[in-house]
Each structure stands twice: as structure tokens, then as C-alpha cells.
Specification:
The complex is a heterodimer of chains A (504) and B (384). Chain A is mostly helical and 504 residues long. Chain A is built from 28 helices and four strands. Chain B has a single domain (40-170, 216-368), classed as Alkaline Phosphatase, subunit A (3-Layer(aba) Sandwich), CATH 3.40.720. In chain B, helix 6 packs antiparallel against helix 7 (192-208), helix 8 runs parallel beside helix 9 (252-274) and helix 10 packs across helix 11. Classes of the chains: A mainly alpha (504), B alpha/beta (384). Chains A and B meet through helix 14, helix 23, helix 24, helix 26 and helix 27 of A and helix 4, strand 6, helix 6, helix 7 and helix 9 of B. Chain A: InterPro entries: DUF1800.
Chain lengths: 504, 384
């Protein structure tokens, strides 16, 4: 590959029809830092975290109300049943799994089910429009390197739309917590991410209660049957995935202590009414709130350091330390190097990125500059197999796609095996060829390429287009295959699945 | 002349009598056996799958999660099966389901991703080995039968390795035209990576035919698909199915019930799809680690250690729960919070695989789990 082709494809997201970087390819990349728009038009037009969360709050309040009513009615029925009817018959609807079964049976008259279905549909609609906007922004972007970095960080801090409370918020998470910080400091991004409702709900932090907090103690005194207490999910993943990285010397005790420090970090408005007042999570729905009523009191010792701070500042201080920890620098450096310089990046490259991170206190543009300066990122041979997302965006950029139906993007990503914001795990999607270069996956790309090509209605000459997308970097085999195609559309399909196009 | 029966006997004798080392570690004769590995990603709660209801500490430790087992079918005096596993319960009654409880891989921390790597590679620690034990198991089969398939869009770690394997998942995309497929073959001919991938892709396509039309979005369809891939004349001997959604940190009861129901249906459709082959089949269900014994503050459980492994199929000596039960009292727990492991998952897998394919247990163990010098072979899991 030539340097221009590397800048376009390895650092960027593929050329857009007729758009070739002018001048020095490295300058073309760094100049994007000044031009990047954190809120481009397709994203600015979307409902924000606030609106989505307030809809969710309305649903949750309604569901709670309906649930209470259903329990009262079931209780009354059971009372009657005890007076002579067959008590067994009544047991099933009160069972916790009854809801799911009623839904499968299509119980349209159950108001709780209706509310749930409505909320899920609302969440899916937000999800779909957000995926569409993400694709639109990426396809149209003239700062594709920074756009790629947004996707990189969103995957690093992955939230996955696995829960009804989360689906609608996944897009808002990337747009509100990642995009504004992609050219800032790692610390600021980390704080924004761990305070966003999508993350707090996804990793169960919102409901984690300190056992000795005012609320925890009160519940314990009443010996209530319903248990409340600590949930260490988010604390663990912050250490393992977001900052230090796995196997970097923290213990189970560190995880638990950090989870205690994190208690009280919650989301406002998702338990409106008396419940919210009790937990201290009242307020404008979706806003980060520190709830003192559920915070575990006392000082904490984490990774050998004592945190005397109380309240919200305690976990914040831990995050501050984690954000500039040498292990974090190494973890981030490794992942960035892997993303731009190959699945198994060289140790010296990682060391240089690590040093840039530490020396600048986690200033991200400094780290990106070190990457652009690295010869390892400019080797002529392709170093990465494009993920389905990377491939799809570069295909649409290559074809000069203007209108992108949101539902079509969602469908395409599902079919190619990388549904957006649905990695199914907080580790995000893998960033290595072994995960994406499978037989079935390549076959699917061929199928998708044929469909995308058919839509170009014979308006694209793939021979000329391929030459501009991969300046001085097209193999003779690919040129020949395209030239011999039986139709312009088939030429486009072959271009989209050529070895050049599958890799970067 | 070596028949499979001979080989089995040789293997068994070799394991029993010192000084008689079998020459053949691996099967030479054709095998009609099938093996399916279903991985539960996310750390499935073994205590809520096969519950030790007879343990005096069970009800108090598990609180709300114990209530599920009020009417659950009893497997023996100690254990009860989750009530949504109705098909598995029938298999158990027919002695075609066996559970090994309080098992764990050698991994002892609580990271999903490292633990899954250990579970899939069969190493002692994460990223120590670069290939998967399922791929190495394929290497034990006669050369022309080393056919493995991942019922997934990509190949999971356990199946990666020296032996080329296929992957297949139902696709809703329209088929590409034959003409384009032929041209793609030419386009990839000189590319070492894409050439091999494309050969696999087109071979699998021929094999599965109209399965593309089969929408496998639910677990039962995936199971049926796996069965068809295994039952085909020239089909795979070994298949792997990935399942996710077992990481139940909150509201575990409803979610786990739905998960187990899906898995139960998947197993049923594998059995149905395999027909008479079910008698020669071993299905292993395993997860990377278990979950905390106590319920957490959000009616879920956090990352733990030991869990339960399932062996299903007509070849299994089932109707039993095998466990050196460590107990659930506070003093008995691993690090004061988890079910303590008393058996190695690699012992279970290696022993079952050796018996299933009629190969020498010690050498099978060495091939599949090269780091496990001290792993004990467990007898009687599978019928020869």
C-alpha cells in the first residue's frame, strides 16, 4: 500500500468517491483534530440522553404501579381460592416467569405487558435511529480518522443493548460520553463514561447499595425479605476492561472495596416517587446522581492506597488515579497499537505509545500523534482484516452513498455478525482477524456486496473507482477481476470483496 | 486389523495396567461418534441449574434463588434440576444425562474473558495456548474424518487451531449468484488466507443447501441446524454452539429461567434432529466459572468459581450427579464466597472424550490438556 492509501484506509474509513487526501498524508491526519465536529447534523438531530431517560422513567413508574396492582389482585384471588377453589390453578400467574410466558402467548390485554412492549419498541426506535445517524456521520465524515477513534473508544467502553432499560440509551452513550472527549483527556472520557446512565444501568451500578449505608442499615434492621446490597459488576469491569486491564495486580478485595466506594453513583429519575426519595435518586431523569442514602460509609483501601474522601469524591478519586496509572497506559497503548498496526503489535510501539500517554497525563491527541509518527503503522502490507462495521462504512463511502435507511444499516450489521452496541459483553468486539475472517463471515460479505452493488444501478465504473480508493495500491489480480466482470454492478461487487477492500 | 472395539479395549487395558503402553493414541478406524460442545458464555450459575437442595445451608445461602426449587424434579437425595429443564429431566430419567458438579477449569480469578480463554484453549492460564482443545480433539479422529464446525458466523477459540474447520450460521441474506461466487474464487486464488477461507465457505454452502432458508434465530432452530450439520452423510463429527446471556448480576431468577428454557429446547432439537445418531452422541455443556453462593444486592449473583458441567446423549452413562460435594456452609466456601471446586473440568472433558472416541485416556489428556500433568481420569462417564 502507498502512504496515501494507508492514510485513507488504515487510519481513515476508506475513501469517499472523488476524495483523495492532498499533500502529506500525515498532515492530512493531524489536521483532522482541528476540524472534527463532535455533533454533526445527523447526530445533533437525535433526541438526547435526557429525553430517552425521561421516557424510560415514565415506563418504569407505570410498570411498578401495574405490578403493585397485579399483586394486590392476585392476592385477592388467592384469598378467594383458599376458600374452596383449587389453589394450585392460581399459582402459575403469580410466578416470576409468568410475565415472559404471557408475552409469548401474546397476551394483548395485560396492561403491564403492553407497557413493556411499548417501552421496548420505544427503545428499539431510538436504537435504530441512532445506528442510522452513526452510519450517516461516518459515511459523510471528512475527519474519518477521528471518526474511527470514536468507534474505537465506544468499543473500549462497550455498553451492550441487552436490557430493555438500556437499548434506547446506547446511542446517546456514544454521542454524549465518547464523542465530546475523543480529542480530550482519557480521564475526562473515563469520568463521563462511568457517570452515563447507559453504563450505570448496563453494569448494574445504579442499584448497588452499601450494606452499611443509611438505607442498607434500615433494611437490615427491618430484616426485610427483599435483599438489597452491593453489586460489584461495574467496579470489576472498570479495573479489568476500562483502565488497568486484566491480570494487572488487583485482587478480589480491591474489586469489592472499589464497589463499596462506587455505591451511591446512580441515575436520577428511574425510581420516581417515594422509592427515589428513600434511595436519594430523585431528580431529572437520566442525570447522574450521587445518592448519599445508599453510599457505604468509611474510608477505603484500593490497590494499597487509602481513600479518606467521603461520598461521591471517593470513587472519583479512585478513577482519577486509575486514569493515569501505568497499567492503564499500557492497556490503552496496546489496544490502540493493535487497532492501527496489526493484531500482534510490536513491543517497542506499545512502549512509545505508553510513554506518550504517561508523559502527557493521558492527553489523547498526544497519543494519536505518537501513533501517526510510528513507522509500524505505515508498513506497506495490510495489517488488519476489516471488521463488518469498518467494511460496511468503507463500502458505503466507496459507493458515494447519500441516503442511508437506518433500518437497513441495523439489518446489515446483524447479518454480518457485528450488531452495533450489542457486543453482548462489556469487553466489546474483538479487534483481531481470527474473530472476523471466518468462512461464513466472508460468504456473507459477498452476498451483501452483491446487493449493495445492485443498488448502484450501473452508475459506477469500478475500474476507475477502485483506482481512486486505493491510490497506487491495487493488485493486478483485482484490476483484472474487475475489468473482466460481466456487468458494471458485478465489477462493483468484486471491488467490495477484493482482498484490498477486506483489509486495511 | 484393528477394529474400533479392539482399540477401546486396548485403551482401557493400558489405563489399568502399568507396563502396557498402547501404541495407538488416536483412533485409526472410522468412528460413528458425534460430539457437541455448547459453551455458556458469561458464567452460568451451576447452583441454580442443578441445585443442592439437600445441603443444609442451601436455603439460607441462596435466599430468593432457592424458592425456584420448591417443586423442582429431584435428581437424587441431594440435587434437584431447574424446573424449566423439562427435556433434560426426561433425558436424566432415561439415563442419558449426567451432571458433574463443583467443577472448574484451572483458572481461579474472575474475569469472563480470561476464563473463557482458559476453558476454550485448555491451558493452565489465559493466552498460554494458541489453539483450542476442541480442535486438538479433532486431531484424534481418523484423518479423513477431522471435520468440525462452529454453528456461528465466526470460529470460536475452542475450535481454532491446526485443523481447518468450518463455520456456519443461518443467513437471511439472499444467496449470491453462482457466477459471482466463481469469480470470487478466482480473485482469492493467490491470497493464502482468503483462498483457504473461501474453500471452506463454498464447501459448507454445498453441504447445508436449503438451510439458508431456515431462520435460526431461536435456540431450537440453532440446535436443529447443528443436528443437520452433524447428521449429513459427509458431515461434521464435532460441532460447537455458542450461547451467551449467562452473566446474571441482577434479577437472576427470571432471566436464568428463560436462558435455561432456551438451552433445554436446543438440546431437545439436537436429539430430535440426530435421530438414531443420538445414541452415538455426546453433548457437553460447560461454562467458564460459576457464581457467588450468596445472592447480591440486586437479586443476582456475582462472579464465582465452581459450577456444573452437563453430559448429555445416548452414549452417556447418565441418571447420576457426580460430585465430591464441598458443602455450602460459610466455612466450606472458596475464598469465603464461591462454591469450592472439587473436580477439574479438563478431567471431565478429557475422560469423556477418550471414552467416547475409544482412545487412550492418558494420551488423550496429554493431547487435549497438555499442561494438566496431574489431572485424574474419571471413569464411567460414557459408554464405550
Amino acid at each position: 500500500m502507498s502512504d496515501v492509501s494507508i492514510a485513507l484506509n488504515r487510519f481513515g474509513m476508506g475513501g469517499r468517491a472523488g476524495q483523495v487526501p492532498q499533500g502529506d498524508p500525515r498532515r492530512w491526519l493531524t489536521a483532522q483534530f482541528d476540524r472534527f465536529d463532535p455533533r454533526p447534523a445527523p447526530i445533533a438531530a437525535l433526541p438526547g440522553t435526557k429525553l430517552i431517560a425521561s421516557q424510560l422513567a415514565t415506563y418504569l413508574a407505570e410498570a411498578r404501579m401495574l405490578g403493585q396492582r397485579a399483586r394486590r389482585e392476585a392476592g385477592a384471588r388467592r384469598g378467594r381460592a383458599m376458600q374452596g377453589e383449587d389453589a394450585m390453578r392460581m399459582r402459575a400467574p403469580a410466578d416470576a416467569t409468568g410475565g415472559a410466558m404471557a408475552e409469548e402467548a401474546g397476551n394483548d390485554r395485560d396492561p403491564a405487558m403492553q407497557a413493556r412492549r411499548f417501552a421496548r419498541q420505544q427503545g428499539r426506535d431510538h436504537y435504530t435511529t441512532a445506528v442510522g445517524a452513526r452510519a450517516q456521520a461516518a459515511v459523510a465524515s471528512d475527519t474519518p480518522f477521528v471518526e474511527r477513534l470514536v468507534h474505537f473508544w465506544a468499543n473500549h467502553f462497550a455498553v451492550s443493548a441487552d436490557k430493555v432499560t438500556m437499548i434506547g440509551l446506547t446511542g446517546a452513550f456514544e454521542f454524549d460520553a465518547i464523542r465530546p472527549h475523543v480529542l480530550g483527556s482519557f480521564r475526562d472520557m473515563l469520568h463521563a463514561v462511568e457517570r452515563h446512565p447507559a453504563m450505570l444501568l448496563y453494569l448494574d451500578q445504579a442499584q448497588s447499595v452499601g450494606p452499611n449505608s443509611p438505607l442498607g442499615a434500615a433494611v437490615a434492621r427491618r430484616q426485610a425479605r427483599r435483599q438489597i446490597g452491593l453489586n460489584e459488576n461495574l467496579a470489576r469491569e472498570i479495573l479489568e476492561l476500562h483502565t488497568l486491564g486484566v491480570r494487572t495486580g488487583y485482587s478480589q478485595a480491591d474489586v469489592t472495596e472499589f464497589a463499596r466506594a462506587m455505591t451511591g453513583w446512580s441515575v436520577a429519575g428511574l425510581g420516581r416517587g417515594p422509592a427515589a426519595r428513600i434511595t436519594g435518586t430523585d431528580g431529572e431523569p437520566g442525570r447522574f446522581v450521587f445518592a448519599p442514602r445508599i453510599h457505604e460509609p468509611g474510608a477505603r483501601t484500593i490497590l494499597g492506597k487509602r481513600y479518606e474522601q467521603q461520598g461521591e469524591r471517593q470513587a472519583a478519586a479512585v478513577l482519577d488515579d486509575l486514569a493515569v496509572h501505568p497499567a492503564t497506559a499500557k492497556h490503552i497503548a496496546t489496544k490502540l497499537a493493535r487497532h492501527f498496526a496489526g493484531d500482534e503489535p510490536s513491543a517497542p510501539l506499545v512502549t512509545r505509545l505508553e510513554a506518550a500517554f504517561l508523559k502527557s497525563g493521558g492527553d489523547l491527541p498526544t497519543v494519536y500523534r505518537a501513533l501517526i509518527d510510528a513507522p509500524e503503522a505505515w508498513v506497506a502490507q495490510p495489517v488488519k482484516f476489516r471488521t463488518p462495521w469498518e467494511w460496511s462504512i468503507s463500502a458505503m463511502r466507496a459507493l458515494g452513498t447519500q441516503e442511508i435507511p437506518a433500518q437497513a444499516v441495523v439489518g446489515l450489521m446483524n447479518q454480518l455478525g457485528q450488531p452495533i452496541w450489542r457486543s453482548g459483553s462489556p469487553a466489546g468486539y474483538d479487534d483481531i482477524a481470527a474473530s472476523w475472517a471466518g468462512p461464513d463471515a466472508v460468504m456473507r460479505r459477498v452476498e451483501a456486496a452483491e446487493r449493495l452493488a445492485a443498488r448502484t444501478r450501473e452508475t459506477i465504473d469500478a475500474r476507475a473507482r477502485a483506482a481512486t480508493l486505493f491510490p497506487d495500491a491495487l493488485s493486478a489480480t483485482t484490476q483484472q477481476a474487475i475489468a473482466r466482470a460481466e456487468s458494471p454492478a458485478q465489477g462493483v461487487a468484486l471491488m467490495l470483496v477484493s482482498p484490498e477492500f477486506l483489509r486495511r | 486389523m484393528i477394529s474400533r472395539r479392539n482399540l477401546v479395549l486396548t485403551g482401557a487395558a493400558g489405563a489399568l495396567s502399568l507396563g502396557f503402553a498402547p501404541r495407538l493414541a488416536f483412533a485409526q478406524a472410522a468412528t460413528d461418534r458425534r460430539f457437541v460442545f455448547i459453551i455458556q458464555r458469561g458464567a452460568a450459575d451451576g447452583l441454580a441449574t442443578v441445585a443442592p437442595v439437600g445441603d443444609p445451608a442451601f436455603a439460607a445461602q441462596r435466599g430468593v434463588l432457592a424458592e425456584e426449587f420448591g417443586d423442582a424434579p429431584k435428581l437424587d437425595a441431594m440435587f434437584a434440576l431447574h424446573p424449566r429443564l423439562t427435556n433434560v429431566a426426561q433425558l436424566y430419567a432415561a439415563k442419558q444425562a449426567l451432571f458433574v458438579h463443583a467443577v472448574a477449569s484451572p483458572y481461579r480469578d474472575r474475569s469472563h474473558f480470561d476464563a473463557q480463554n482458559v476453558l476454550e484453549t485448555g491451558g493452565n492460564s489465559a493466552y498460554q495456548l494458541k489453539d483450542g482443545w476442541l480442535n486438538r480433539m479433532l486431531g484424534m479422529l481418523p484423518a479423513d474424518e477431522r471435520k468440525g464446525i462452529a454453528v456461528a458466523a465466526t470460529i470460536p477459540m475452542a475450535l481454532r487451531g491446526r485443523i481447518e474447520v468450518a463455520s456456519y450460521a443461518p443467513s437471511a441474506l439472499p444467496d449470491a449468484s453462482d457466477d459471482l461466487l466463481g469469480r470470487v474464487a478466482t480473485l482469492y486464488a493467490e491470497d493464502p488466507q482468503l483462498h483457504a477461507i473461501w474453500q471452506q465457505a463454498t464447501a459448507t454452502r454445498t453441504l447445508t443447501g436449503d438451510l439458508v432458508a431456515n431462520n435460526g434465530r431461536n435456540a431450537a432452530a440453532t440446535g436443529a441446524l447443528a443436528a443437520r450439520l452433524l447428521a449429513a452423510e459427509n458431515g461434521a463429527r464435532i460441532a460447537m454452539i455458542e450461547t451467551g446471556g449467562w452473566d446474571t448480576h441482577a434479577g437472576q431468577r427470571g432471566r436464568l429461567g428463560a436462558q435455561l428454557n432456551g438451552l433445554d429446547q436446543m438440546v431437545a432439537s439436537i436429539k430430535e434432529g440426530l435421530g438414531p445418531l443420538w445414541d452415538k452422541t455426546l453433548v457437553l455443556v460447560a461454562t467458564e466459572f460459576g457464581r457467588t453462593v450468596k445472592v447480591n444486592g440486586t437479586q443476582g449473583t456475582d462472579h464465582g468459581t465452581a459450577s456444573v458441567a452437563w453430559l448429555l446423549g445416548g452414549a452417556v452413562q447418565g441418571g447420576r450427579v457426580v460430585a465430591d460435594w464441598p458443602g455450602l456452609g460459610d466455612a466450606a466456601l472458596y475464598e469465603g464466597r464461591d462454591l469450592k471446586p472439587t473436580a477439574g473440568l479438563d478431567s471431565v472433558i478429557g475422560s469423556a472424550a477418550a471414552a467416547h472416541f475409544g482412545v487412550d485416556p492418558a494420551r488423550t489428556m496429554a493431547a487435549m490438556f497438555p499442561g494438566q500433568k496431574s489431572a485424574r481420569a474419571m471413569g464411567g462417564l460414557v459408554r464405550a
